Amino acid sequence: MKHHHDKPYDHTPAGSVEGTPRDLVGILRPLRVELVPTSFGCCLNIDPTSLTESIRPWVELAGKSCSSTLLYGLTVRNTELAADADAFAETAFRMGLTGVEAVPGGALLVQSQALPHVITLLHPVRLSAAQVSGPIEESDVDALKRAEEVGKSPLDAEMRARIALRSRAIGRVELHLRDQSAAPLFVAECLRHYLAARLHRLAHMVARPELWQIERLLSLTGILLVRPVETEVFSTSADVGISTHPDHEEIPADRSLIYDLPSNTWHDEA
């Protein structure tokens, strides 16, 4: 078995956003979710996860709001592909990938349908992103970068941005949301990938939990901890134990979601 120690939860082969089961390293890591209210809305931290697992809900939300995604603060592994934003936009055009353009200030403006392909090609080590409605100018990019430099949210710097993302540490994603109702979508997608790995299935073979189920869990303390040792797999179901206690490292699971294998559905069992 090949282990990807630098991307414990990114199990997506090139050209796919669905992926194959997570490796053993990823499976053994507890999944931590923390939702924190903020002045601009809320901050959602998920660890471990990957950009791959954030792409699908991100694209869904961008499509609903007719927003484009601004990628900036990029550090990529493949320097031949993306030495800078202009070079990557030109490469994308030659490859027939539409909906990608360079923005002055060293950023990329990406339409939602192209975003999964861009992430796959770039394979970024560091990334900041914001969903923004309307035209983007160099001054907008500069404002977003300055906000990060002084520890502010991109949503404070750009009022047209509804969602922002920061990926700095391997396996961790930080999401800034104006509307807290968007948080369950990202958590549900992450749990879908988590259980798919636990069941040794492809992600698209496992449904997401219902958003109201995730919303109810998050409403308790804003904290979720899913430990693999507390996920029990049976012949026709899987019991995913979830701790919602603030001191979750020491407290056993107090809630659970039951996944029914034959019907591919989730059931709430508090």
Note down, in words, how this protein is organized.
The chain is α+β, with helices and mostly antiparallel strands and 270 residues long. It has 8 helices and 13 strands. It has helices spanning 24-28, 51-65, 85-94, 115-122, 138-149, 154-157, 183-198, 211-221, and strands spanning 31-37, 42-47, 68-76, 100-103, 107-110, 124-132, 161-167, 173-177, 223-226, 231-233, 237-242, 255-260, 265-268. A 9-stranded antiparallel β-sheet has the order 4-5-3-6-7-8-2-1-9, sandwiched between helices. Strands 10-11-12-13 form a 4-stranded antiparallel β-sheet, with no helix packed on it. A hairpin with a 3-residue loop joins strand 10 and strand 11. Helix 2 packs antiparallel against helix 4 (115-122), helix 2 (51-65) packs antiparallel against helix 7 (183-198) and helix 7 (183-198) packs across helix 8 (211-221). The longest helix has 16 residues, at 183-198. The chain is globular and about 55 Å long.
What is the 3D form?
Answer: globular
Average pLDDT, to the nearest integer?
A: 84
Question: What Rg is obtained from the alpha carbons, in whole angstroms?
Answer: 19 Å
Q: What is the count of DSSP helices, taking H or I runs of 4+ residues?
A: 8
Helix content: 25-40%
Give the end-to-end Cα distance, rounded to a whole number of Å: 36 Å
The amount of beta strand, in percent, is 25-35%
Order of helices and strands: HEEHEHEEHEHHEEHHEEEEE
Uncertain parts: 1-27
- Tell me the structural class: alpha+beta
